[in-house]
Amino acid sequence: MKCLILLVCLFATTAYAEGNGEGRPVIFSQDTDMWGLRVNATGTVTNHEKTLDVHLDELTFGSNPSNKRGAQIVDYTVCLVYQKTEEAWDKTECARPVKHEKQFSDGEVETIKDVSFSLEKVDKLPLNLFWLVLIVDNKKVINGYMTTFAQSQSDVLHFAAEPAQ
Questions:
Q1: Cα Rg for the chain, rounded, in angstroms?
Q2: Is the Cβ–Cβ distance between 63 and 106 less than 8 Å?
Q3: What is the mean pLDDT of residues 33-60?
Q4: In a domain, 1, yes or no
C-alpha cells in the first residue's frame, strides 16, 4: 500500500511539473538519409500560458557523405506542425529563424550549443495533436533553395495538453 501511495505521489508530481512550466526532453532527428544535410538536436520544450519555449542544448549539422556537392545553410527554425492528411504534415506556427550562413563540404560536421526558440500557441486546438519540426533552409548548389527537416517525437507535446502557468 505504501508503495502504491508513493508511486501515485511521484506520478502526480511529475505530471504537474511537465504541464506547468517545467521542461520536457525533446529530440530532433531525421528518419532518412536522403537529405544532403544531416540535422540532429537535443534539448527541452517548456509549456507556458501563451508560448512553447524550445531550448536546444546541442544542434548538429553535417553534410551527408553521399552528397558530393556539400550543403550550404541559410537559416533554421523550429515549427509547430500537425498531420494535415494521411501522407503530409503542415506548419501552424514557426519561431523566428536564426540566420546561419555556412557552407559544408563533403562529410563536414558542426555542433552549436544553447539555441532557444519561442513559439506562439495555436488557439482552440489541443497541443497533443501537434509535434515540433526543426526546419533548415539550404541554398542549392545549382540554383534556388531547398529545405531539410528533423522531426521531434510525435508525442513530445502530449504533456502540454494540461493548462500551463
A1: 18
A2: yes
A3: 91
A4: no
